[in-house]
């Protein structure tokens, strides 16, 4: 019952909060495009591979994977976010966007060579993030890759420590518990380990996991 209520609350939060900010969020493509490019290269998969981008938002990361030559599906709960994402679809790209919930992905087991989530986990309650990662693990092929991009933890980099007060000014209330707990707490619960990792400007961490 607790999880059901949490899921309902999170869906409501997504529909209300992100509906208001969808157009503003799309402006991040001009600011964070170096991060998107670095993450796409860091996945290190020879195209074309099938990738699902969970909580795709306005589709910036999915777009970078598609530009490399991958076959990408981006999913999100927010219709407004997806409307912005669909503007990135081009005839020369294998890219599409679907309305779907990350805690119940509409795909069969072992469907994708890789699953990714960028800047999404810090906006989710712990229990929701756990369910999302379990689903990403389920739909990724055995031996496939899972890529996570999110805020770096202050204990990992001095720039993350310096910028945390600023991030706290604009991020939601879920950011601080996420950072304090550490992402490896989530990963341990679903038996996933970091295979490779890097960072972008010390502010964001890019983690690669093997399924």
Give the structure's gist in a few sentences.
This protein is an alpha/beta fold and 211 residues long. The protein contains 9 helices and 7 strands; from the N terminus they run H-H-H-E-H-E-H-E-E-H-E-H-H-H-E-E.
Describe this structure in words.
The protein has 211 residues and is an alpha/beta fold. 45% of the residues lie in helices and 23% in strands. α1 packs parallel to α5 and α3 packs across α4. The longest helix has 24 residues.
Strand ordering within the main sheet: 3-2-1-4-5-7-6
Tell me the helix content: 40-55%
Number of domains: 1
Would you identify the CATH architecture? Answer: 3-Layer(aba) Sandwich
The CATH class label is Alpha Beta
Break the fold down into its secondary structure elements and pairings.
Blueprint: H1 2-25, H2 28-31, H3 33-43, E1 50-54, H4 60-68, E2 71-76, H5 79-85, E3 95-99, E4 112-118, H6 126-139, E5 140-151, H7 158-170, H8 175-181, H9 183-189, E6 194-200, E7 204-210
Parallel strand pairs: 1-2, 1-4, 2-3, 4-5
Antiparallel strand pairs: 5-7, 6-7
What keywords describe this structure?
211 residues; alpha/beta; Rossmann fold; 7-stranded mixed β-sheet; 9 helices; 23% strand; Methyltransferase domain-containing protein
């Amino acid at each position: 019952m607790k999880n059901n209520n949490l899921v309902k609350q999170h869906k409501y939060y997504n529909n209300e909060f992100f509906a208001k900010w969808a157009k503003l969020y799309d402006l991040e493509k001009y600011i964070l495009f170096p991060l998107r490019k670095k993450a796409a290269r860091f996945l290190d998969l020879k195209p074309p591979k099938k990738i699902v981008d969970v909580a795709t938002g306005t589709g910036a990361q999915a777009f970078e994977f598609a530009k490399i030559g991958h076959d990408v599906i981006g999913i999100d709960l927010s219709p407004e976010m997806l409307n912005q994402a669909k503007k990135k679809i081009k005839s020369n790209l294998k890219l599409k966007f679907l309305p779907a919930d990350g805690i119940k992905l509409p795909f069969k087991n072992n469907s994708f060579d890789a699953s990714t989530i960028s800047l999404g986990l810090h906006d989710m309650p712990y229990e929701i993030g756990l369910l999302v990662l379990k689903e990403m693990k389920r739909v990724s092929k055995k031996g496939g890759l899972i890529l996570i991009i999110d805020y770096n933890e202050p204990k990992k980099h001095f720039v993350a420590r310096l910028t945390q007060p600023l991030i706290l000014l604009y991020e939601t209330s879920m950011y601080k518990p996420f950072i304090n707990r550490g992402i490896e707490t989530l990963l341990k619960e679903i038996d996933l380990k970091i295979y490779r990792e890097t960072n972008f400007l010390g502010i964001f961490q890019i983690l690669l996991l093997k399924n």
